[in-house]
Design a protein that fits this description.
By secondary structure, the chain is an alpha+beta fold. The protein has helices at about 55-65, 70-80, 85-100, 105-110, 120-130, 135-150, 155-165, 275, 280-285, and strands at about 170-180, 185-195, 200-215, 220-230, 240-245, 250-260, 265-270, 290-300, 305-315, 320-330, 340-350, 365-375, 380-395, 400-410, 415-425, 430-445. A hairpin with a 2-residue loop joins strand 3 and strand 4. The longest helix has 14 residues, at about 70-80. The two termini are about 30 Å apart.
Length: about 450
C-alpha cells in the first residue's frame, strides 16, 4: 500500500476563527493543505487470491479493480455489517476505506487481518491509517514489524521515515505577512520548539512570536510566549495552551477535548482578540475574548461533511458567532489528486466595531472549490481555488486561491512556503487581502 503522505503543513496566520478563516482578513476561508490519501496501491501491494464470490462480493472486487475505492468501501461496510467475508476481500475493503479517508472505519478491518495470510499488508495499512490520524507513536512499531519480516519493503521504509520526522524534536522559524485593501498590514515572526516524551504520546511546545500591525498613521506590536501540551494517551486527548504577552503579562489559555467515536472536538478558552483581529487599534486596546468552539465531521458515500460553530464574547461587550459547513466530495472528475468541495459559512455580531471584522447585517456566503496535492517522501506541493456567492448580509461574490509546498533539503532540514489571496466584499464594499509565509524547520536527534 502506498504510504507517501502529507507533511503536516499549516495555513499561515490561521487565527482563531477555526478551521482557517482569519477574523481580520475574512470573507472566504484561508485554505490549508488537505491531508493526502494515496489513491492507488503501490508495487508493494500483495496479489489477492479470491475464492468464488457471491454477486455482492464480486461487485466489491470489481469496483476495487476499477479504482472506484469510494464505492468499494461503502459497499464493503454494508457487507461487513451482514457477516464475515474472505480475508482477501476484507483487505480490499480496508484499502478502499483508507484510501478514501475513512480512517476510523478502516482501522478495525485491518486489525482483523493482522494475524492472517495478509498480515504484512494489513499491518502496513494500519500503520498508514494511524499516521494519517496523527498517532505516529502507534504507527512506528507497526512499520518496524513489517520491516522485521520484509526489510526491503519500500512502503514501510518510507512510512517509518515520515513517522520518525513527526516524532523527532523540532525547531521551526516562520516569517510572513499579510495586507489588505484597507491598507492594513501585518508582519510576524515565530520561533517554535516541539518535542515528545519517550512514549511519543505526550506532546510539548514552547513558542515565542511577534506581530506588528499597521494602518496609515497607526502602528502596534506585540510579542508573546506560549506553552502547549497534548496527551494522546488520555481519554478525549486533552490539549492545553497558555500564552502571555511580554508587555502586559495578561494570561490567555484554552483547553480542547476530542471524542473520536463521534468525531467531535470542543475548545474553551480566553483568547487574545487584539492579536486575532489583525488591526493595530484592536491590538493597542488589548481586546480579549472568551471563546467556545465545537467542530465535528462524518463520512458519507458522497464524501466527508464537517461543521463548526464558534462563539466569542469580546471584552468590548460585543459578541461574535461564526459557523461553517463543508463537504469534501468523493467526486473526482479531474483525477485522484484533485478534490472538489463546497460549503457555506456565516458571521454575525451584536454590533459593528471598527477595529475588527464585525458585519453590521451579518455575513453569509456559499462556496465551491477545488484542491490538489502532489506528494513524495521529501516534498509536498498543494494548490486550491474557490468561488463564493452571497447568501445574506454584507457578503458579496468573491474568490480565493492558495498555493505552497514543503521540501526536505536534507534529512533533518525542511523549507516550506505558503501563499494566499482573496477578493470579496465587506461592509458593502469591495475587499481584497493576501498573505505569504516561509518556514524553516530543523529536526533534532
Amino acid at each position: 500500500m502506498a504510504c507517501l503522505a502529507d507533511e503536516r503543513l499549516r495555513a499561515p496566520n490561521a487565527g482563531v476563527d477555526y478551521p482557517g478563516g482569519v477574523p481580520g482578513l475574512g470573507g472566504l476561508n484561508l485554505l490549508a493543505p488537505f491531508q493526502y490519501i494515496p489513491p492507488a496501491p503501490s508495487a508493494e501491494s500483495p496479489s489477492v487470491d479470491l475464492p468464488a464470490l457471491k454477486p455482492d462480493e464480486q461487485r466489491i472486487a470489481d469496483l476495487y479493480a476499477a479504482g472506484n475505492y469510494q464505492a468499494a468501501g461503502t459497499a464493503g461496510l454494508a457487507l461487513m455489517a451482514q457477516g464475515d467475508a474472505d480475508e482477501g476481500l476484507r483487505l480490499m475493503m480496508a484499502n478502499s476505506l483508507a484510501w478514501t479517508g475513512r480512517l476510523v472505519d478502516a482501522a478495525p478491518v485491518y486489525r482483523g487481518l493482522a494475524s492472517g495470510r495478509y498480515a504484512d499488508a494489513a499491518n502496513l495499512g494500519l500503520a498508514n491509517v494511524q499516521r494519517w490520524r496523527g498517532l505516529d507513536h502507534e504507527a512506528a512499531p507497526l512499520y518496524r514489524s513489517v520491516l522485521a519480516r520484509d526489510p526491503n519493503n519500500a512502503d514501510a521504509v518510507a512510512g517509518l521515515q515520515l513517522t520518525a520526522r513527526e516524532l523527532s524534536p523540532r525547531t521551526a522559524v516562520s516569517l510572513g505577512g499579510s495586507s489588505d485593501s484597507s491598507d492594513e498590514q501585518r508582519r510576524f515572526a515565530t520561533i517554535n520548539h516541539r518535542w515528545r516524551d519517550a512514549s511519543g504520546t505526550r506532546i510539548f511546545e514552547v513558542e515565542t512570536s511577534k506581530v506588528r500591525d499597521e494602518l496609515p498613521g497607526i502602528e502596534a506590536s506585540q510579542q508573546d510566549v506560549s506553552l502547549r501540551y497534548q496527551d494522546l494517551n488520555t481519554a478525549f486527548k486533552p490539549r492545553f495552551e497558555l500564552s502571555v504577552p511580554t508587555q502586559n503579562h495578561t494570561l490567555f489559555g484554552s483547553v480542547g477535548l476530542s471524542h473520536e467515536p463521534y468525531n467531535t472536538s470542543v475548545q474553551l478558552g480566553r483568547v487574545n482578540w487584539g492579536r486575532a483581529a489583525v488591526n493595530p487599534n484592536a491590538l493597542a486596546a488589548g481586546l480579549t475574548a472568551v471563546h467556545l468552539g465545537v467542530s465535528t465531521w462524518h463520512d458519507f458515500a458522497v464524501g466527508r461533511l464537517s461543521g463548526r460553530l464558534n462563539h466569542f464574547r469580546i471584552s468590548d461587550d460585543n459578541t461574535l458567532l461564526t459557523s461553517g459547513l463543508n463537504l469534501d466530495t468523493a467526486w473526482r472528475p479531474l483525477g485522484k489528486a484533485f478534490k472538489p468541495y463546497l460549503g457555506m459559512e456565516t458571521r454575525e455580531t451584536k454590533f459593528y466595531a471598527p477595529s475588527y471584522w464585525s458585519p453590521e447585517q451579518g455575513s453569509g456566503t456559499a462556496y465551491a472549490g477545488l484542491r490538489g496535492e502532489w506528494s513524495d517522501t521529501d516534498w509536498t506541493v498543494y494548490t486550491s481555488a474557490q468561488l463564493s456567492g452571497r447568501l445574506f448580509g454584507d457578503a458579496g461574490n468573491g474568490w480565493s486561491v492558495s498555493a505552497g509546498g514543503k521540501r526536505w533539503i536534507a534529512t533533518d532540514v525542511a523549507v516550506s512556503l505558503s501563499l494566499w489571496a482573496m477578493s470579496s466584499q465587506r461592509n458593502n464594499s469591495a475587499y481584497r487581502a493576501r498573505s505569504a509565509s516561509v518556514n524553516l524547520e530543523k529536526l533534532w536527534p
